[in-house]
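Tokens for chain A. Residues wanted.
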């Protein structure tokens, strides 16, 4: 599937959903997904920056 077909199918699905559910409901779903992505990409979930271990007492 090339990019042109992907764009066509994506726009078709979005248009159908907008007609059935209304654009407000779709916008709320998009906002919730964006908030979830931002929440899950917080730096505190990346792990400890001290990946080399402690160097205290090794000298």
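Reply:
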């Amino acid at each position: 599937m090339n990019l042109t077909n992907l764009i066509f199918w994506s726009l078709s699905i979005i248009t159908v959903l907008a007609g059935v559910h209304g654009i407000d409901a779709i916008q709320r779903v998009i906002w919730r997904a964006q908030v979830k992505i931002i929440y899950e990409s917080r730096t505190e979930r990346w792990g400890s920056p001290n990946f080399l271990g402690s160097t205290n007492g090794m000298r």
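The first helix runs from residue 3 to 21. The two ends are 59 Å apart (CA to CA).
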